[in-house]
Amino acid sequence: MTNTAYKKIVVAVDGSATSDLALAEAIRIAGTGGAQVLVLYVVDNGQLMFDVEYYDPTPVLQALADSGERALAAAAQRLSAQGVPHETRLVTQQAVGGDIASAVNDAAAEWGADLIVIGTHGRRGVRRLVLGSVAESVIRQASVPVLLVRGQAAQG
């Protein structure tokens, strides 16, 4: 039996163990139906959107982009090993600084995705309220189905 529902799958990665689980799920789904996968890494520039005299955020942004490139290369290697057709994309600019969810949804829409796969860290209570949830924001904004892949629940 083949999966005919999804032909273009976006998977968001961030280098975490949870995003590795999301990538594994995207590979599994793509493998059953011959789908293409777009691996997306969004550089979180939200923390750098402040105006401080004598501060140049360029080295920090470059380090974040380098980390993203490494995560994308590792994902591409896994997809190639499984014979899954794929692309990678590093998003360094968001319309609103730090709005990762919008960047994910915008990339999915632009690419014509019919599924978004994203990991969720399983935070609850106050930690979720304080830290927010990119996955929850992706769901709220998405125009296509979103598959959440849960990592280990955070302690504390």
Automatic annotation (TrEMBL):
Protein name, as recorded: Universal stress protein
Predominant location category: cytoplasm
UniProt domain UspA: residue ranges: 6-150
Gene3D superfamilies: HUPs
CDD domains in alphabetical order: USP-like (cd00293)
Entry-linked InterPro entries: Rossmann-like_a/b/a_fold (IPR014729), Universal_stress_UspA (IPR006015), UspA (IPR006016)
UniProt keyword terms in alphabetical order: Cytoplasm
Subcellular location as annotated: Cytoplasm
Pfam family, one: Usp
Gene Ontology cellular component annotations, sorted alphabetically: cytoplasm
Family note: Belongs to the universal stress protein A family.
